[in-house]
Amino acid sequence: MKSYTVALAGNPNTGKSTLFNRLTGLRQHTGNWAGKTVLTAEGEFERNGILYKLIDLPGTYSLYSNSADEEAARDYIIFEQPDVTLVVLDATSLERNLNLALQVLEMTSRAVVCINLMDEAEKLGIRIDLDRIRERLGVPVAAISARNNKGIGPMLDLVEKVAEGVLHPEPPPIPYSEEIERQVRELEPFVRKTLGARYPARWIALRLLDGDENLIASLKQRLNGTAPAQGQGVMSYGHTACN
To answer: What's 130-150 look like in SS3?
Structure first.
C-alpha cells in the first residue's frame, strides 16, 4: 500500500490534537522525542487506498530555538521532511496563528493550511476570505470544524493532492531588509555546497544569520551521522480507518 507522512503543526489550543484524534481514532501511540522530555504522538489512518502516518508535533507559537517543544517541531519538519505539513490555525485568532504558518512555509512548500474552529468564528460573526488567504500564502487552504467533523474530507483531498504531487504549492519568499537579503544571497551558495539540495538553503541561511546555535548543533549531528533516532511510542491501541 502506498504511504505518506503528514505532520500536524500549530499553536496550542487550535484544535490540532482534536483533529489528530478524529483522523487516527485508536490507531495511535505516544512516546518522547529522541533526547527530549517532549511528548510525541503518532497515528495512522487509511483513505483512498493510501496509508497516512500522522505526526502530532508539539503545539508552539514559533519554530525558533526558544524551547524544547519548538526545537522538536522544527527539527522534525526540517530533518524528517514529511510529505505534507498540515498547519492548523484557529479561525478566531488568525492574525496570531499566521505567524507560525509563515515560519512553516519558509521551511517547506509541501504544506496545506487548515483553518479550524470555523463554527466558533461563525458564532462571533467572523468572515474569512479563503481565496484571499490561499492567494497570499501560495498553498492550499481548507476550512474545517474538527470537533463537529465538518470539512475533513475536502481537507484530506488537498493533503492527498500535495502528497501525490498533483498540487505544487509555491509560497512566496518573505522579504527582509536589503542588508539581510544581501547576506542571505552570500550564504545560500555555501549552505547548498555544504548540505546539498535536501534542506531549504534560504531558511538555514536566515537561521545562521540569527545565530541559532541549537540548529547549528543539529546540523552538525546530521552531517556527522550522530543524530539520535526518532523515539518510539510507548503505548499502542487499536485500529480505525478514515473515509
So the answer is: HHHHHHHHCCCEEECECCCCE
Contact 175, 196 (CB under 8 A): no
Residues with Cβ within 8 Å of residue 196, at least 6 apart in sequence: none
Distance from CA of residue 218 to its chain's centroid?
18
Q: Which helix (H) or strand (E) holds 23?
A: helix 16-24
CA–CA gap between residue 237 and residue 26 (Å, rounded): 6
The tens place of each residue's pLDDT in the chain, 243 residues long, gives: 999 999 999 999 999 999 999 999 978 888 776 666 677 889 999 999 999 999 999 999 999 877 888 988 999 999 999 999 999 999 999 999 999 999 999 999 999 999 999 999 999 999 999 999 999 999 999 999 999 999 999 999 999 999 999 999 999 999 999 999 999 999 999 999 988 888 999 999 999 999 888 888 888 888 787 666 554 333 333 433 344
Q: What is the pTM of this model?
A: 0.89
The contacts of residue 7 (CB under 8 Å, 6+ apart) are: 54, 55, 57, 76, 77, 80, 82, 84, 85, 86
141 contacts 133 by C-beta, under 8 angstroms: yes
